[in-house]
Design a protein that fits this description.
Pfam families: Ribonuc_L-PSP. This is Reactive intermediate/imine deaminase. GO terms for molecular function: deaminase activity. This protein is of the alpha+beta class. The protein has a single domain, classed as 2-Layer Sandwich (60s Ribosomal Protein L30, Chain: A). Helices cover about 25% and strands about 25% of the residues. It has two helices and six strands; from the N terminus they run βββαβαββ. α1 runs parallel beside α2. It starts with a strand and ends with a strand.
Length: about 130
């Protein structure tokens, strides 16, 4: 198992790594929608969705992969009433990268770190 670290995604805010490479798989930690340069988070859930996905993509790119290698996502949301906005941004992300839609789980949670509206983790395969 090898840790993955990139300046193109926010640093871990606790005792964990941005992602790991193990065998043919890359697994990211949950990615908050923080801009890695400004450390700012938009209030808009669609923008948060895109930023979380971009952060996860930066990690798998560091391992030499791209969006087409994403096979599974887990999406944690604060409010499922915003699901249509999240879903539209999610769809746009994968369409923009000409990638197939991966398998996905989506769950509503009581609260996320830094009061984010969304957090996304990704599994990619070589």
């Amino acid at each position: 198992m090898q840790s993955i670290k990139t300046s193109q995604a926010p640093e871990a805010i606790g005792p964990y790594v941005q992602g790991i490479s193990i065998g043919n798989m890359i697994i990211t930690s949950g990615q908050l929608p923080l801009d890695p340069k400004t450390k700012v988070m938009s209030d808009d859930v669609a923008e948060q969705t895109t930023q979380s996905l971009n952060n996860a993509l930066a990690i798998i790119k560091e391992a030499g992969l791209n969006a087409k290698h994403i096979v599974k996502t887990t999406v944690f949301v604060k409010d499922l009433n915003e699901f249509s906005l999240i879903n539209a941004a999610y769809e746009d992300f994968f369409n923009k990268h000409n990638a197939s839609f991966p398998a996905r789980s989506c769950v509503e949670v009581a609260r996320l770190p830094m009061d984010a509206k969304i957090e996304i983790e990704v599994l990619a395969a070589r």
